[in-house]
Amino acid sequence: MYAECGFVEFAWKVFVQIPQPNVVAWNLVLIAYFRGSDVSGADKVFGLLSFRNLTTWNVMLAGYTKAGGLERAEGLFLQMPSRDDVSWSTMIVEFSHNGCFDEVLGVFRELIGSRSKPNEVSLTVALSACAQAGAFKFGMCGNVLMARLVFERMLGKKTIASWTSMFAGLAMQGYGEEVIKYFHEMEESGTRPDGVTFISVLYDACSHAGLVEQGHELFSKMTETYDIEPTIEHYGCMVDLYGRAGQLRKACNFVVQMPVPPNAVIWRTLLGACCFFGDIEMAEQVNKRLSDLDPDNCGDHVLLSSIYAFAGKWKDVAMVRRSMAEKNMKKIPGWSMIEIDKVMYSFVAGDKRNEITEEAYNKLSEIMLKLKVKGGYIPEVGSVLHDIEEEEKEDTMSKHSEKLAVAFGMARLCKGSTIRIVKNLRVTAVNVPSILIEELNDTVLCNRRPGPGTIKTIVERLSIGTIL
């Protein structure tokens, strides 16, 4: 009882009165220390144990993960003499929560190779990691028709986890309206949505598909019909929904009227929308709020610098960058990943060249040349530093990580294949042109599925990092 309530001192006083404590009692003491957020105390108790069963190891593993000690959890996991479903699932879930999708797939491979079998939790998380990492061949994700077929043929009543997974998968491929349709089917089936379900539908489906009215209705239904108290994540979904649709004033008013104090993530979401739509005045106001909440965040300075650059306000750009230099802030480089023959390749802008990146650079140079000669492409370099030569600006624009990943895919995959790129956890799908590079504009699959654009529009959107 004391352990469950987090009263470490009382739990220990009772424990030391036990004449011969067994392993169950020792495990309960470990739980008490973790419940009391005393990780060092748990470490000391663990060191005193002469006999440890599997539950003991799992308690330590779960305790480390809840305390945010990913490295310590990983080290303990490697030391475990044996593992069960709980052990594997705990590690897979923790890696996934921290965005370590390569590690998720690595642990899952190890699980498959062991005597254990994946349970529903480990399998679901691994499939989710495949989807987020673009590992289509490894997880057979990204195929909407196949996912729908499997989902429709599930026996018995579908759980809320199944429905939510289907929502996330459809939304990631741009089928926002399909998600809304399935959501209503879920309601008709008698399955009650929870807070996680609404986050998935609001953010993954409504926000990325521009379904503002539907999103507003669902947010109202969450409180009025299902009596679910919105969390800061739900409010963030609504800010993102309005912001992506360009309704900046509505998004700002929503933030101001929130019943809970907006955190830095909320304001940062609004700042990103201001930068995307070029509202300098609002961006400056939002940045002031962020300066109070999180003054040393590099990303906020980069966003503000970008909007100043697009507006040609180079003095302001210099001021922001000078501030970053004074605070010793460094921009986190963009990265992109692509899966080829079940192997994930990662590209980072400006990274050191090796055999893989050299192949990507060579193919990219070939593509850019064809775009200029056959497509009449002229790079848009207005947002690049104004104090370098035009040729250097053009070279800078051509080294974005997603361009390298696309080029590498075109070099390695056969014509007619599909290239899937992950950039900041979003998937970009591009079909390799069958004859000319210029046909790229007809083969890009966009999340919002706009009409066919020109080559120049697509290349420019890729060059500034827009996720298609």
From TrEMBL:
InterPro entries: DYW_dom, E_motif, PPR_At4g14850-like_plant, PPR_rpt, TPR-like_helical_dom_sf. Keywords: Repeat. The keyword Repeat applies. GO terms for molecular function: RNA binding; zinc ion binding. One of its GO terms (biological process) is RNA modification. It comes from the Eukaryota. Residues 376-428 form the DYW domain. Signal peptide: none annotated. PPR repeats lie at residues 53-87, 159-193. Belongs to the PPR family. PCMP-H subfamily. This is DYW domain-containing protein. It comes from Solanum commersonii.
